[in-house]
Amino acid sequence: MSERSPLSAFMDGLTGVRLSTALGIFAFALAELALLAALVTPDRVAALPAGVVARHAGDDGASTTVAALQMARTAGTRPAVVLVGASSLREALVGADSLRTDLAGRLGVPEDRLEVHDLTTSGQELFESLALLDLLPTETPGVLVIGAGAARLMRPRATTLDRFEHPNLAIDAPALDARGADLGFTPPHRAGVYLLDHLQFYVTRPQLLWRPFTGPIALARHRYLGRTPWTERRWVKGLDTLVALLDDPTPITEANLTALDAALPRLAAGGRRSVVLLDAVMHPRARERVAPLVAGVESRVRDMAGRNGAQYVSLDAEARVEPGDFYDHTHFVTEAAMTRYQSALADRLAPLLRACVTTPGTGCRP
Length: 366
Fold this sequence. Notes:
Largest sheet: 5 strands, parallel
Helix content: 40-55%
Distance between the termini: 96 Å
Number of strands: 5
């Protein structure tokens, strides 16, 4: 009988795993997953710096997840401004801390008399915005600012469904699954365990395992600040793409309008809050081009606001936006533009906050 070669013995050992060994490996993996599930909970994530969770400096899905979980656990009776929307709003403001300073100055109160929660993300869908606002405790008074530009409400169906399939947030919100089912998306099975229910989100962020020990990374809010604006060739292509999207209505538009209309009375929390539906900032050239395509939706949003005691606001004129402020059709490229826009927003929000900030227990209404 010939002796087995060393290579043959090695390969047999590599591929011939015994059942007991396989079961041991499986049991170890389960134990490891159970340990992670115990460590990755909403309370623990809320206690972490966002830079621990983030994949990279611009990971606004991670920063907003942490901010939303913190808001759900710390917001109380102190008035709060909550901002939800997509990148056009995120890139239009200097930041949450700066906005709080602006508001406190206008109200003549210390900054700790109010909170500002910035829950904006790039490409945020309306259903995500409404789910984020549902995390705000019902007893919290304040002002909710919802990015409600027509282009955001007129989303392509494929774009919306892709966000369901590849979630950018890790928040527990049954309304998300219900909205997905309404749009034809089959929600995943929910195990009732935070990590398992948001496994796709955390699998793409493995650095959460070591960043608590190595420290958080620095986050960058603005993606377009200081970049070279669109060339004329890029403008032609970009506007053609935007027009094509807006000129092809899908059921998502009607679903978004219906969902927003239904949510406004609930979000007002019995008069404790004001709701501002904020039109997206837009380059004058782009606004002129798309005006005929979005007029119908803008009219319906304006009417919706009036019927529900909300405000529909466009700040382009008050912020004195001009072509040189923009990188593309909707994102600022200069800090000066952001400062003007944020100042205009603060001017609009301060009167809504005055009553509830100066007289605790009063609703935030004009």
